[in-house]
Write a structure and sequence with these properties.
The strands form three sheets. The protein has a five-stranded parallel β-sheet, sandwiched between helices. Strands 4-5 form a two-stranded antiparallel ribbon. With 370 residues, it is of the alpha/beta class. The radius of gyration is 24 Å and the shape is globular. Helices cover 59% and strands 12% of the residues. It has helices at residues 2-36, 42-50, 57-84, 89-95, 113-124, 134-139, 143-156, 161-164, 183-200, 232-243, 249-252, 255-261, 265-269, 282-291, 296-305, 315-328, 333-349, 362-369; strands spanning 103-106, 128-132, 168-172, 204-209, 212-217, 222-227, 273-276, 309-313, 356-360. The termini are far apart. It has 18 helices and nine strands. The relative contact order is 0.11. The protein folds into two domains: 2-276, Rossmann fold, CATH 3.40.50.300; 282-369, Helicase, Ruva Protein, domain 3 (Orthogonal Bundle). The structure holds adenosine-5'-diphosphate and magnesium ion (MG). Adenosine-5'-diphosphate binds at residues 53-56, 107, 109-115, 226, 288, 292, 294, 331-333. Adenosine-5'-diphosphate (ADP) binds next to helix 5.
Amino acid sequence: MTHTHDGISGRSQQRIEDKIELLREEQTAQAVQEIIEFDKTPADLKAAMDGFIIGQERGKKVISTAIAFHYKRLGGALKEALAENNDDISLALRNIRAPRANIMMIGPSGCGKTYTSETTSRLAGVAFVHEDMTRFSEVGYVGQDATDILIDLVFAAGGNPTLAQMGIVYLDEIDKIASEIVAYKDVSGRGVQKGLLHLVDGTDNTVQIGKERIQLSTKNVLFIAGGAFENLEGLVKQRMGRQGYQGNWKDYLLTDDLVAFGMERQLMGRFPVKVVYDRLTTRDLKDILTRSADSVLLAYTSDLKAWGIDLELTDDALGEVARRAEQEGTGARGLISVIHRVLLEDMYRLPGSHTGKFVVDGDYVKEKLG
Ligand SMILES: Nc1ncnc2c1ncn2[C@@H]1O[C@H](COP(=O)(O)OP(=O)(O)O)[C@@H](O)[C@H]1O
Ligand SMILES: [Mg+2]
């Protein structure tokens, strides 16, 4: 009895596994095709970004260009490699020779670094994973943790290693693993940076996921690192002073300055594209409220509309919300808490008791925020 039972389940198990394998192959073939046919220009990509990310005009240009070129180049190289490797995708991916230009994003907290990376990856249609580097500095021991990133990437790619190997990894708070003069931090910071270097360099890695051992190369993964790098401005300006340069420090930022900050030169050498994001102005914050597709205000407005309520904030009210958010010093993150404080009571009270227009003006905002 038991034997027969096992036999049947074994066979159906096999059938399920075959089906999954087939699905994965189809998914892979389609993803590869999409990369090969990647045809978004930098301007296309930036135009799409503009619907979400407000301000940061210069930064968005640099990033859209870097990402569009990366995938265009990868697509071309992949097409060639497939032809040279009998259409074997994993072999082709391993044998690709396409130079890569990883991106370093610098800018104050809440100005859109993480948001840009995530949104642009989605717009480009590739797998994206976000890794918080502060988690790594605490652990210290590195080899193992670098592999964790790869596992996260495979999950982000829906379990598909091919997609994972063409994805984007965002290394958040990279400045937090800088080594400092303080002796105890020196060791761990440097260790984590060395581990990252190995990963960013694109060496072959084997990761174990469940029972499966997967060969993964990060050769074609695009890395974006981001951090606030507090006081970097001062370091750049000091150097500019010593060397007799004048002008906007953002135009003069060099790998040397990041090294002076405490980053490993070798690692920084792997991030040739440098982007400096600006602190968001009151104007930007106001525009985020009214124009970003992910605006918390627009979300609330549409929620209320479903209850028959037309929420409207006057220009004064928007300005006041933006000013208060700016005072919090957390960039656009402040908008969420401010808007929430202004509207919380009404969001509770209005549905069911009011329909039609509901206008919020500057005085009302001031009254609510105290
Ligand atoms: N320039 C921006 N345009 C639109 N929304 C933004 C912008 N910057 C930040 N945000 C909003 O604030 C949130 C936090 O920003 P985030 O990108 O995480 O900041 P950080 O620069 O610290 O990584 C985002 O999820 C997004 O909703
Ligand atoms: Mg961030």
